[in-house]
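Format notes (please read before filing issues)

Several people have asked whether sequences and structure tokens are stored in separate files. They are not. Every record keeps both together, in the order shown below: the sequence lines, then the token lines. Line labels are part of the format and must not be stripped during preprocessing.
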Amino acid sequence: MEIEKLLTTKEVAEYLDIAISTLMEYRVNRTGPVYIKLGQLVRYRKADVDEWLKTKENQAKI
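Then the structure lines:
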């Protein structure tokens, strides 16, 4: 079983082309992608980020 690399807040912000502060605001408001807390570290699975993007795409079609 291969464990996928977890992404940092900076990496996800770069991937989404948004400011780190915007991603942090999404996290506080619980409107962003699912994240994992490891102690004080916040990490994201790319699959969760992509799934969150899909929901945003679907909302835009309504």
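For reference, the curators noted about this record: Residues 46-61 form the longest helix (16 residues). The chain has one domain: 9-61.
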